[in-house]
Design brief:
- The complex is a heterodimer of chains A (about 140) and B (about 750).
- Chain A is mainly beta and about 140 residues long.
- Chain A has one domain.
- Chain A has 2 helices and 8 strands, in the order E-E-E-E-E-H-E-E-E-H.
- Chain A is extended.
- Chain B has 21 helices and 24 strands.
- In chain B, helix 3 crosses helix 9, helix 4 packs antiparallel against helix 8 and helix 10 crosses helix 12.
- In chain B, the strands form 4 sheets. Chain B has a 7-stranded antiparallel sheet with strand order 2-1-5-4-3-6-7. In chain B, strands 8, 9, 10, 11, 22, 23 and 24 form a 7-stranded mixed sheet that branches. Chain B has a 5-stranded antiparallel sheet with strand order 14-15-20-17-18.
- Helices cover about 35% and strands about 20% of the residues of chain B.
- In chain B, a hairpin with a 2-residue loop joins strand 4 and strand 5.
- Classes of the chains: A mainly beta (about 140), B alpha+beta (about 750).
- Chains A and B meet through strand 5, helix 1, strand 6, strand 7 and strand 8 of A and strand 8, strand 17, helix 16, strand 18 and helix 18 of B.
Chain lengths: ~140, ~750
């Protein structure tokens, strides 16, 4: 039984491993931090949020301050998919963001059917145009006295 | 309860005498922690118990619910149509109904959850303290007003009217109406004083009191309130608007009682809460047991740059979920960005209802199902001395926390799970990106308020489509951004560009966030006008991406000073030369002799001369998923719609295409993306190696840092020699140095260095 966790991660309950959903690569122990099985890159934020205003003239340019804000990019070591991004302060320990109780997860899924692909959640209800046989929009036209 | 020195030496009888004396001679009815810290349902009353035994037919109760929701919707429209405040005109309001005990049971369908959620605190205060007080009392026809956030409120710019509904002399429920009014007589005009250094700088402070008797506004008290603010007409009109919305709501509720009986109404109001709480527990039970952690940093106190941490660990065990905010920044006692715990919890509720479980009834039953842990005297659990005028900064982050933490629990659930109530969504832009203004209008009226642009936050990207541009504020899905032409009729502000989407300011991803729009404004026809802004996120990107998506960019304020753009426009040809975009205007600098500058977008009030230009952006929602998975045709569509530049299409999305025809070279794009994936693998480092080099013991010495680092039990404050390390459980409020004193000291040091 495999349980989806994010767009790019799942847990194999039998092997108790994190897996990459893009390439099936075994990332690491599901009882541990999936990030430990990924590659990390300290991205210069100006490469992603480019300085749109002239940095020679202006102190603030729509780019984060690199001494305050860094982007940690986490890649699958097998397929190179960017599994997660983490905006953090330089030197701050990367957050252990997902820590599930694997035994409880096994018990929970013992009675559930496997889900291999995510179908998006429900969309909010939208207004439907009804056809009344008397022209588009006529039903909404103000009534004359 | 008060803890009295020496009480342990007293006998039981003596203690009772002492306690009775203290209870009967209370010196001051301040905010009551027993009310403000309790987010659970009040115990079921005998009246409710009897009513629920009498009426257990869900169809009947649903019929009652339908009538009440119609009434709430009607009263909401009344306020929206009649309200004078900009907030009222564009949806920043709510009407609501509460049980007799004060629990929020239902809100108007398009209303602001937070306003109704915090309104239950003053109702409970009135129930507890005024009902049996012979000098006050609670009677049919009474209306109580309130705006002090310490008694329940987001900040003091929001005013509520609350009315009890009686049937045959018995209190059966409360109704309310709340508007973001704006002006409240604070140290800065407009109602949200970023400059407030104490609660006494926040202007009008109304603890809950009666302003209406026998359905009539007490004119003497109203006059006092009008004298306490800069816009007495606004104060008068909207007190009446809120009162009459409450009266209409009360009439409708009484007609429900006439048709179905009092017990049916009481049973519905209570069952609505109990059923909702039970449903939330069922949904939590569907989630995996475990912890999801998320950190975010506010990069400004609105007075100085500072990295102010909001830490969160969401813990699920069975059908319980605890939001643990320990390790967040300490309270900053002379800055305006604190929040009291009651407000923090209700903002979290908004995040859950807006982006996770929007199908649930919007009531206290949702919040009651959660537990919270905080550090007292922290930024999101501040004491009653702390100013909260710009509490929006930490509170909006608690909305974000809910938005981006829950998907990691929910994403993998089976299709039929009730917890999968809507699509997964990345962080919506989470800053109050608007101009707050004040001064003398072209009609010679003194006023102060804010622009409805605050309601134009870009939506986060969704798991199956891009986010919507400038769709709503993150705290209310039905608010609008207003009509600038109407505002210009009343105010001496001129929009030089109108809701122009901010090109290349994008939360990138497989699906991109919705963009925000540029606001470029100047002033005309007044000799006294000014602006302030309350955005953070000029150095640290505020809205978080999801599952590999990027955050929104960083947003500054831009200014063109020392020039009158109207004089410049009057010269031949200049109108055609004017670049109607912030980036072009600032980079091309076409207005000769002007001073162009950018700065942190948290700006305290400053006076503006006619024709000077001020510019901010509504922000983008964050991205979802890996940018290399974005459909190249969607990238071309972004180019056609002028949302992004060719440089971004190439560098961020790695799409190869013809710039003239926008025809994608599919094979070359696949090759380019494979190349980028290989480049990632080459530049990425193994986690253990990376962490060994990356992680530091503490924040950099020169970083003005507030909050925990790795261990939530230890909190850092400040920078350099002034930095302290505190035990998170016993943190004390922090007082910041006056930025002017800091600047003077810097300049004096420079002078001293030069001899």
């Amino acid at each position: 039984m495999k349980v989806l966790v994010t767009e790019y991660l799942r847990i194999d309950l039998d092997t108790e491993k994190w897996e990459c959903r893009s390439c099936n690569h075994e990332i690491g122990n599901a009882r541990g931090n999936y990030k430990e099985g990924l590659l990390v890159y300290d991205r210069e934020p100006a490469e992603i949020h480019k300085p749109l205003l002239d940095p020679k003239r202006y102190s603030h340019t729509y780019t984060p301050n690199p001494k305050w804000c860094r982007i940690l990019e986490f890649y699958c070591p097998n397929c190179g998919t960017m599994v997660e991004t983490e905006y953090t302060v330089p030197g701050h320990p990367p957050v252990h963001d997902i820590e599930f109780d694997i035994d409880a997860l096994k018990a929970q899924w013992a009675t559930r059917k496997p889900v291999t692909e995510r179908t998006p959640g429900k969309e909010p209800p939208r207004h439907e145009h009804h056809h009344h046989g008397h022209g588009h929009g006529a039903a909404h036209a103000p009534q004359k006295d | 309860m008060n803890v009295m020195p020496g009480i342990a030496t007293l006998s039981v009888g003596e203690r009772k005498i002492l306690q009775d004396f203290v209870d009967e001679h209370q010196l001051f009815y301040g905010p009551d922690p027993a009310i403000m810290r309790n987010h659970h349902l009040e115990p079921r009353t005998d009246m409710e118990d009897a009513a629920m035994k009498k009426h257990d037919d869900p169809h009947l109760l649903n019929q009652v619910r339908g009538r009440v929701i119609s009434a709430l919707s009607e009263s909401f429209r009344m306020v929206e149509q009649m309200g004078a405040a900009p907030g009222a005109k564009w949806g920043d309001l709510v009407t609501a109904i509460f049980t007799a005990s004060g629990d929020l049971s239902e809100i108007s369908p398009a209303g602001i959850v937070t306003f109704a959620g915090v309104c239950q605190y003053p109702i409970k205060f009135i129930n507890k303290y005024w009902t049996d007080d012979p000098s006050v009392g609670v009677r049919h026809g009474d209306g109580f007003i309130h705006n002090d956030s310490r008694y329940g409120g987001i900040h003091n710019t929001d005013q509520s009217m609350m009315m009890p509904v009686f049937h045959e002399g018995e209190l059966v429920c409360w109704v309310s109406s709340t508007i973001h009014e704006g002006e409240n007589g604070a140290i800065e005009p407009g109602g949200m004083p970023a400059k407030a250094e104490s609660r006494f700088d926040e202007g009008l402070k109304m603890s809950p009191f009666r302003i209406v008797e026998d359905f009539q506004v007490k004119r003497d008290i109203l006059t006092f309130l009008q004298n306490s603010v800069r816009d007495p007409k606004l104060q008068y009109e909207d007190v009446k608007v809120k009162l009459h919305a409450c009266i209409r709501l009360m009439e409708r509720v009484r007609s429900v009682i006439a048709e179905f009986g009092k017990d049916a109404l009481v049973a519905y109001l209570r069952r609505n809460l109990e059923d909702t709480e039970a449903e939330v527990h069922r949904r939590i039970a569907e989630l995996p047991d475990g912890v999801v952690r998320f950190n975010t940093w506010i990069d400004s106190t609105l007075r100085e740059p500072a990295l102010v941490k909001i830490a969160c660990a969401a813990r699920v065990k069975g059908d319980r979920m605890c939001m643990d905010f320990r390790g967040s920044s300490p309270q900053l006692s002379n800055r305006s960005i604190n929040a009291v715990i009651g407000s923090t919890k209700v903002c979290f509720l908004t995040g859950v209802l807006q982006n996770i479980w929007p199908d649930l009834p919007h009531n206290l039953g949702v919040l009651a199902a959660f537990d919270f842990e905080t550090d007292p005297n922290s930024l999101i659990d501040a004491n009653n001395d702390a100013p909260c005028a710009m509490s929006l900064l930490p509170m909006f982050r608690t909305i974000t926390v809910a938005t981006v933490s829950f998907p990691k629990f929910i994403y993998g659930l089976p299709d039929g799970a009730k917890a999968r109530a809507t699509v997964t969504i990345a962080g919506q832009y989470n800053q109050p990106a608007t101009f707050v203004y004040g001064g003398l209008t072209q009609h010679m009226d003194v006023t102060g308020n804010f622009c409805a642009d605050i309601n134009g936050n870009g939506q986060g990207a969704r798991e199956n489509r891009d986010g919507e541009h400038s769709v709503s504020p993150l705290f209310g899905f039905m608010c609008d951004t207003g009509e600038h032409e109407l505002a210009e009729e009343e105010l001496p502000m001129v929009r030089l560009i109108a809701q122009h989407l901010a090109r290349d300011r994008v939360g990138w991803g497989k699906y991109r966030g919705g963009l925000g729009y540029e606001q470029m404004v100047t002033v005309r026809g007044t000799n006294m006008w000014g602006f302030m802004t309350g955005q953070s996120g000029s150095w640290f990107c505020s809205a978080p991406g999801l599952f590999g998506g990027y955050n929104c960019p960083a947003y500054p304020i831009g200014k063109v000073k020392d020039v009158n753009v109207f004089d410049w426009f009057a010269k031949e040809g200049n109108a055609a030369r004017f670049p109607y975009g912030i980036v072009e205007l600032m980079n091309e600098q076409p207005i000769e002799g002007a001073r162009y500058l950018t700065a942190d977008a948290g700006m305290t009030f400053e006076l503006v001369e006619e024709g000077e230009i001020y510019m901010i952006c509504q922000g983008a929602g964050a991205g979802y998923g890996d940018v290399l998975e974005r459909d190249p045709e969607a990238v071309m569509q972004d180019l056609r719609e002028d949302l992004i530049s060719h440089e971004s299409a190439r560098d961020i999305y790695h799409v190869v295409y013809d710039e003239r025809t926008l025809i994608v070279d599919v094979a070359a794009t696949e090759k380019a993306r494979a190349g980028e994936r290989a480049a990632r693998k080459a530049r990425g480092r193994k986690y253990a190696d990376f962490v060994a080099d990356w992680v530091t013991e503490a924040p950099a010495e020169d970083l003005p840092y507030y909050g925990s680092w790795g261990d939530p039990a230890t909190v850092y404050t400040g920078a350099g020699a002034a930095r302290q390390m505190l035990d998170a459980g016993t943190i004390q409020p922090i007082f910041m140095a006056d930025p002017r004193d800091v600047r003077i000291a810097e300049l004096e040091a420079q002078l001293a260095a030069k001899g």
